Amino acid sequence: MKFLVQIILTVIVCFALQYFFPWWTMAIGAFVIAYFIGNSSFPSFIAGLLAIAGLWLGMAFYIDQLTTSILTEKVSKLLSLNAFILTATVGGLVGGFAALTGALLKAKPKRRYY
Amino acid sequence: MKLLKVGISALITVSLVYALNRGWNFGKTIPPLGKFLDPFHGFWKNAEHGDPQNNTLSIPGLQAEVTVVYDSLLIPHIFAQNDDDLYLAQGYITAQHRLWQMEFQVLSAAGRISEILGPVALDYDRGQRRLGMTFGADHNLESLKKNPDIYRAAVNYATGVNTYIQQLDYEDLPLEYKLLDYKPEVWSPYKLALVQMNFSLTLNSGELDLQFTNALKLFGKETVDLLYPDHEQQESPIVNTPGAWKKFKLVTLDTIPLAVPDELIQIKLSPVKPRGIGSNNWVVNGTKTATGSPILSNDPHLSLGVPSLWFVNHLHSPNVNTMGGTLAGTPGVILGFNDSIAWGCTNAQRDLVDWYRIQFKDSTKNEYLSDGKWKPARKVIEQITIKGENPFYDTVVYTHHGPVRYDETFRAENEHAQFAYRWLSHDEAEPLTAFYLLNRARNYEDYMKALDHHFSPAQNFVFAAVKGDIAMRVQGKYPVRRKDEGKFILDGTKTSTEWKAFIPFDQNVGIKNPASGYIFSTNQYPVDATYPYHIQTGDFYETFRNVRIDQILGQRTNLTPQDMMAMQNDNYNVQASQSLPLMLSLIDRSKLSPAENIAFDTLSSWNFFNTINSTGAIYYETWWRDFYANLWDEMAESKTLIPTPSEFTTIQLMKQKPELAFYDIQRTIVKETLRDIANLTFKSSVKKVEDWKLEHPETPFQWTYFKDTYIEHLLRLEPFSFHARNGGNSGILNASSHRWGPSWRMIVSLEKTGVKAWGVYPGGQSGNPGSKFYGNMMEAWTNAKPYPLKFTDDQESLAPSTYFTIQLKPAAK
Q: How many domains does chain A have?
């Protein structure tokens, strides 16, 4: 549940941030959300990754549809890699590591009773 | 422990952001991937959708409201209430569509490409600096400032460009900025001077002095005169009026014996432009047309690139109403028309470059010898900024001739090569003035007055007026020369070899209303042999297209604009018609393979048209290339720089000198004859064609695919480039070769009921690869079907063809 909440909140907050500010502000968004939601590290990483990869992919897909792919194929050829996959990977990695950092900062050290 | 984990994770995140926020270069340039791929601001934002909508923009600096009506080709029709606003709006609108290209050509001119592409461009940049491009631009700016009206237009244009730049956020930047990760700079009139220098470099720097010097040393004067005659005896000069030049009060030079150099020069020269490029323009008067009004046609042939060199614009104010091809970065119309006249250009190349061997006092190069005295040299330290590396400093030594381009630090193989470069385009040239005046010209007299301000790059200006006059003027600043003067390296220690005088403008070649009813230029030899000044091209004059135009225009009457379009797309190969019958007659048919027999039959029945689906053209062009290379293998084998003779002279020699020593192929022991090379190269060329077929099993065996006209993005990015399937080749009216071709096809019919015009260029009005207007004209250009241009005097009549309208309003102060 908290996993889904983290994804949805990250998407919303980062959409708003990116709408006005440079691309890397989504890292701050993913980090802050991860901190407040407080998932453990690995799920948090995945949530951040999926959220930003999804957000970027969704936006890219929307633009691609709207513009009848006028640029997508050209840029894919230019970069010798599929532009969608690349977009999702780049966004997702940054989102994932930002979320991981947030989760790690929040994590309480485990008490060890022995 | 926790802190360590957080630290590592944070470090990874920050490093990722850093690494993805900047570009990299691993042999291949990688854009800043995070920034570039971000769908909110990155390249995705450059993909355009839907149709542009009517809009109102607030523009600081405007005095009154300006209306920009776009037609369906995205051609802006700018209606301003005064000239200041007109040029400001032109700058703004041009930048909107072509900003990246505008700036890129300036960086290229100034030798600053390393700033954006890194060390790979350093050698090119050094070459540009040593060419004195900024030295010339400085002079041109000075000259621009002396004419207040023109300078004002340049300043207003720059204001428009800068207003546009200031409004840009990262997401609005043209794609190429995002790809290479840099930002546009402020525009200025100085950049206009650099654009001018770029054109001078393309058009007015052709010369082969160093190469001719080597030829002289190796072959002797007699052979040089045979292989590289100044005047190739072709049929149709631009102006052919023997005896008409007698009234000239000639500028003559003291006769000083010419010192002919005796040396070999080993330099890795900057690339020389390919031969056979050039342009067509012609005009016919009412006696030759169906309407009884003159028709003017122009297609300048240049390197084919996208974004295209040309941007079509219609400029209207109470003082001017003109339309045509404009150059991104330059106010006004360059090749176009107004409601009274039309004009067009082809290049009027002559030898405008000389090289002087400089004798420095010592290795410090602080002083050099001139007429027995030591003169101080000027040193310019060029700082070349290199992306990702420390700047490179290059010291360029200037003499009174100009910069020393090649020395021991740059491309010369020995330290003796201290050659100063005297180039006419370094001089003040009143950039823009002639075009500014042509935009406003009403008649022949205005045209002549306008051209008195054109110095460089020298052009053949064709002219037609609604009133019925037609004319041509070969206009530029030309030094008075004696035969062979400046064809070879000159002795820089004597001022007696320097340019002493220039041909007075009223003694330049020109003609008005000839009895024939037509005039044309194709970069051919400009004038009949009775013209009193010695003419020397610098490299080679055109020799084939002029024959074809003369042939067509001489015969035809009742011409229509559609006939002119067909002429621009004419694929008749004059060179083939002059050379192939002789070449075929040399072939020994008894020794041909089946494939060679097919080739022979194809060539025998070929009609000399390089049409799209021709196969004869494939065999001929391949054979000619092999034949030519083997005939002149002496030049390639000489291990030094020697020009190969022109195609025209080659054919003349084949016909007139069947025993020339050059027919021998150097790398073989046997002594070959003309017949031997013809047979050898026929076989080798058929093999090449057969190999091509094997390598392209899916491709139709047609000339257009074999030739493959390629319109390349300025950064050589294949996905942003185009292949065109058209006919033609260099030396043909439809001059579309692999990389060069008609950059702007324009036809103007000067009818009394209103000027009608057609135009098209390869590409589209938008410079954005993400726009549907990036390549939308490509098909019409390929088929040589220019669009009717919506030229009018009143905004209202544009209503039916209006695509959308932009209102530019003065910003509240």
A: 1
